[in-house]
Design brief:
The protein has helices spanning 7-26, 34-49, 52-65, 70-83, 86-99, 104-117, 120-133, 138-152. It is an all-alpha fold and 153 residues long. The chain has a single domain (7-21, 31-152), classed as Serine Threonine Protein Phosphatase 5, Tetratricopeptide repeat (Alpha Horseshoe). The protein starts with 6 loop residues before the first helix and ends with a helix.
Length: 153
């Protein structure tokens, strides 16, 4: 199954990142060390540049300092997905969703991972969850249609 890749993901990821950075800086109960913030910033830059191995390393550093960093699990999941490590992508999406049930990006990445594995039932379920959270997520809508066609073949 060929998953549609478009600028939609990049735009959605950018929006997700900006919201997450705002949330990261506005948390009243937690102070982030400048080194952790630097790793976080680097992970964003690496993922946008397609340097997935370094994105994973930076995310690992953030997660080590903050095991509840939803954004880092999501970014790392995307990196694993792009590298073809679908099981790790699925695991990281599961952790991101556990921490934030409204993480449409994590549902979408997990759906893409299941889709690549040929598990269309789980893929469709995740993409539907992503669309419920973010009705404008066209990539997920498109992938649902493709997966349903694949199931019927």
């Amino acid at each position: 199954m060929k998953i549609k890749k478009q600028g939609v993901f990049s735009g959605f990821l950018c929006l997700f990142i900006f919201i997450s950075i705002h949330n990261l800086y506005s948390q009243q109960t937690k102070e982030y060390h400048p080194v952790v913030l630097a790793h976080f910033k680097n992970s964003l830059e690496y993922i946008m540049a397609g340097d997935y191995a370094n994105a994973i390393i930076s995310c690992n550093n953030v997660i080590k300092a903050d095991p509840n960093s939803v954004v880092s699990y999501t970014i790392r999941a995307r990196a694993y997905y792009e590298l073809g490590d679908l099981d790790r992508a699925i695991a990281d999406c599961g952790q991101a969703i556990k921490l934030d049930k409204n993480n449409a990006t994590a549902y979408n990445i997990r759906g893409n991972s299941y889709g690549k594995k040929g598990d269309y039932k789980r893929a469709i379920s995740d993409w539907q969850a992503a669309v419920r959270i973010n009705p404008n997520l066209e990539e997920a809508r498109y992938n649902i249609e493709l997966a349903m066609k694949q199931q019927n073949n």
